[in-house]
Amino acid sequence: MIVLGADFLKSAAQKKDWPSPDKPEVAFCGRSNVGKSSCLNALVGRKALARVSRTPGRTRLLNFFDVRVAERSRSGGHTAHRELRLVDLPGYGHASGPREERAGWKKMIESYLGGRETLRTLVVLVDGDLGAQPSDREMVAWGKSLGRDVVVVATKLDRLGRTRRPTRIREIADALGVDSTIAFSAKEKFGVDELWRAIAPG
């Protein structure tokens, strides 16, 4: 996949402030500090499209990014471009902040996932070094119950030896009840093409 353009559109908390539903959307969610922003940046080939923070729970709003992509053609060029919107959701799990504020984030995410008509795919990022957690299982089950296409991505796999990665991938898939898991590393840049094929199939 060739990324022709990627731009931050806006941050929003309430439905009235969401962008117009004029493009198919792909939402990215996961436990706090799972590497959502790093994943998004690696996906579009940019260093700082999404802000990366070492502080868990830093993302506190829905962040919308407009992306134009095209597939490589056999002649070396590319096909006609397509547009989609990537949405970075606040992390769940150990997000910092007052309890009331965390409850507000939860309500905001529930409103978006349950009521956004242009949402096509929910990408659930799981810490590949840590393995699947109960909150990850809840998110995958919830996404399926809403009728969303769910894609599971195991991040930070560069922290595991190469021989351990296939086993961890199978463990995560089994724990979450999905057919497959995409092995991903923003640092080593593997899994990018596989993720594009999952969220923007030809």
Radius of gyration, Cα only, in angstroms? 16 Å
Portion of residues in beta strands equals 25-35%
Poorly predicted regions are: 52-58
How far is the N terminus from the C terminus? 10 Å
Q: How do the SSEs run, as a string of H and E?
A: EEHEEHEHEHEH
Shape: globular
User: Would you report the number of β strands?
Assistant: 7
Portion in helices: 25-40%
Strand order of the main beta sheet, please? Answer: 1-3-4-2-5-6-7
Tally of helical runs:
5
Q: What structural class should be given to the helix and strand makeup? A: alpha/beta
| Chain-averaged pLDDT | 86
Largest sheet: 7 strands, mixed
Describe the structure.
There is one protein chain. With 202 residues, the chain is α/β, with parallel strands linked by helices. Helices cover 29% and strands 25% of the residues. The protein contains five helices and seven strands, in the order E-E-H-E-E-H-E-H-E-H-E-H. It has helices at residues 36-44, 99-115, 134-145, 165-176, 192-199, and strands spanning 2-12, 25-30, 62-70, 82-88, 119-127, 149-155, 182-183. The chain has a seven-stranded mixed sheet, sandwiched between helices. The longest helix has 17 residues, at 99-115. The model is unreliable at 52-58 (pLDDT under 50).
Topology overview:
Layout: E1 2-12, E2 25-30, H1 36-44, E3 62-70, E4 82-88, H2 99-115, E5 119-127, H3 134-145, E6 149-155, H4 165-176, E7 182-183, H5 192-199
